[in-house]
């Protein structure tokens, strides 16, 4: 999708702080972090959200990348994974992504 900012990040057309990358996915630090560690995991192909027909192999690659992010960032004390799905849930970028949040005590609040 030519007007999608995350497609442009996946294609390295706009810069990001890359944490992990493979053939299917890329992980990069959130521009507006809500925790000491706040990294986003996205597939390189465009899907609107996590229930937009994302192939199982791509979902598996995203979860694998979550683990790579946790290892790279040293999130040994735990972390949280969030996938806001739809505008009603606060999704603002309509390219499926998982937030990986950690580096502080995470209580009942989402972040
Ligand atoms: P969501 O509200 O779940 O759609 O999350 C979108 C996230 O993308 C927000 O946390 C933004 O801070 C983040 N974001 C938007 N543009 C960029 C960008 N160019 N680089 C890194 N993160 C971004
Ligand atoms: Zn996209």
Would you kindly provide a written description of the structure presented here, covering whatever features stand out?
The protein is an alpha+beta fold. It has one domain (5-102): 2-Layer Sandwich (HIT family, subunit A), CATH 3.30.428. 22% of the residues lie in helices and 23% in strands. It has two helices and five strands, in the order αβββαββ. Strands 1-2-3-5-4 form a five-stranded antiparallel beta sheet, covered by helices on one side. Strand 1 (18-21) and strand 2 form a beta hairpin. The longest helix is centred in the middle third of the chain and has 18 residues, at 56-73. The chain starts with a helix and ends in a 9-residue tail after the last strand. The model has no long low-confidence stretch (mean pLDDT 96). The structure holds adenosine monophosphate and zinc ion. Zinc ion (ZN) is lined by residues 1, 4, 6-7, 46, 95. Zinc ion binds at residues 1, 4, 6-7, 46, 95.
